[in-house]
Amino acid sequence: MNDHTTGTARLLPWTGSGGKPCYLIGDGKGYISKVADRIESVQLGMAAELLGHVAELLSDRRATSDQLRYAVARMAESLRDVHRIAESRGARLSAEGPAEEAAPA
Q1: Percent of the chain whose pLDDT exceeds 90
Q2: Mean pLDDT of the residues in the chain
């Protein structure tokens, strides 16, 4: 998904009305891109924290089915966020093409 006049379409880390995906067309340097970067960072940090919490919960034999069900619900939400981030970043890498991927950082 590449718009040759304004840049690449970026899948944003939030959804629009009805859960529809939101996209941003641009060069990746504007205000909304920076907000999206910060939100992605928060979402990834929360996913890491959730993994730690779930590991503790699973090791506790006294964990109730309600606690486990709640943890699974939060994990599903987090996985949805992380999946959206991976899709967005993968699409942007694909849009860069082989020449730009090989360029030194």
Answers
A1: 73
A2: 88
Helix 31-59 to helix 65-102 angle, to the nearest 10 degrees?
Answer: 140
Taking residues 60-73, what's their average pLDDT? 97
Which amino acid makes up residue 60?
Answer: D
For residues 29 and 48, what is the distance between their CA atoms, to the nearest angstrom? 27
Residue 56 has pLDDT above 70, yes or no: yes
Distance CA 64, CA 59 (A): 12
Q: Give the C-alpha separation, 9 to 22, whole Å.
A: 10
CA neighbours closer than 13 Å in the CB half-sphere of residue 32: 12
Residue-level pLDDT at 1: 43
The full DSSP string for the chain is -EETTTEEEEEEEEE-GGG-EEEEEE-S-SHHHHHHHHHHHHHHHHHHHHHHHHHHHHH-TT--HHHHHHHHHHHHHHHHHHHHHHHHHHHHHHHHHHHHHHS--
